[in-house]
Amino acid sequence: MSNQFELNAQARADLGKGASRRLRRNANLMPAIIYGADKAPTQISIPHKDMVKALENEAFYSHILTLNVDGAKEKVILKDLQRHPAKAVVLHADFLRVSADHELTTHVPLHFLNEESCKGVKLGGGAVTHNLIEVEIRCLPADLPEFIEVDMGALDLGDIVHLSDIKLPKGVALVQLGLDHDLAVASVQATRGGKEEAASESDEEGASEE
């Protein structure tokens, strides 16, 4: 992995909504919890500015993170995030402990390639529609990708990319793929302008034949 993330944290014993509000207001700290790996949950606090800075990097959401809790390091992934509905404030975070020999389940973003140059867009005047922007995967921590690429280059108008069409990195499996149907990830749809342009070209060809 190209990015490494490590945040300093402190264990906290003062719990409850009132304690969390005091942390945010008086110390500019964000309350959080670490759980999983058959260990007792650990309540922690993280400097809010450090968390905000880390969240600016997309890779933070799908990386193995290191939390340095009072000098003891924990390997975790970010499982949940609570933000203020109106302010640029992170209210709370949930971190899940990871173990090298145990599979984890998490979400990773999709990166769409060759959208502008795909046949349906470049030649057909269509537009790409995204049905999903991330997928839920299962893998060992060492195989966790930052993102998964979806190549749109060969798609024509009306073509659809499904979950089963995605080329997955080694050791990675899609969680949703085992459900009742194969979800659509993206498609190339005709646009209103594209249809009008095609109709205009057809009329011009008909007129020239007459």
Automatic annotation (TrEMBL):
Keywords: Ribonucleoprotein, Ribosomal protein, RNA-binding, rRNA-binding
InterPro entries, per the entry: Rbsml_bL25/Gln-tRNA_synth_N, Ribosomal_bL25/Gln-tRNA_synth, Ribosomal_bL25_b-dom, Ribosomal_bL25_C, Ribosomal_bL25_long, Ribosomal_bL25_short, Ribosomal_L25_dom, Ribosomal_uL5_bac-type
Residue ranges of every copy of the Large ribosomal subunit protein bL25 beta domain listed in the record: 104-192
Annotated Large ribosomal subunit protein bL25 L25 domain residues: 7-95
Example of a GO biological process term: translation
Entry keyword Magnesium: no
GO annotations of cellular component type: cytosolic large ribosomal subunit
Superkingdom, natural source: Bacteria
Keyword Ribosomal protein carried by entry: yes
Region annotation (Disordered) ranges: 190-210
Alphabetical list of CDD domains matching this protein: Ribosomal_L25_TL5_CTC
Biased composition (Acidic residues): 199-210
GO molecular function term, any single one: 5S rRNA binding
Similarity comment: family membership: Belongs to the bacterial ribosomal protein bL25 family. CTC subfamily.
NCBIfam families: bL25_bact_ctc (TIGR00731), PRK05618.1-2 (NF004128), PRK05618.1-5 (NF004130), PRK05943.1 (NF004612)
Subunit: Part of the 50S ribosomal subunit; part of the 5S rRNA/L5/L18/L25 subcomplex. Contacts the 5S rRNA. Binds to the 5S rRNA independently of L5 and L18.
Matching PANTHER family: RIBOSOMAL PROTEIN L25/GLN-TRNA SYNTHETASE, ANTI-CODON-BINDING DOMAIN-CONTAINING PROTEIN, RIBOSOMAL PROTEIN L25_GLN-TRNA SYNTHETASE, ANTI-CODON-BINDING DOMAIN-CONTAINING PROTEIN
Protein name: Large ribosomal subunit protein bL25
Species the sequence originates in: Aestuariirhabdus litorea
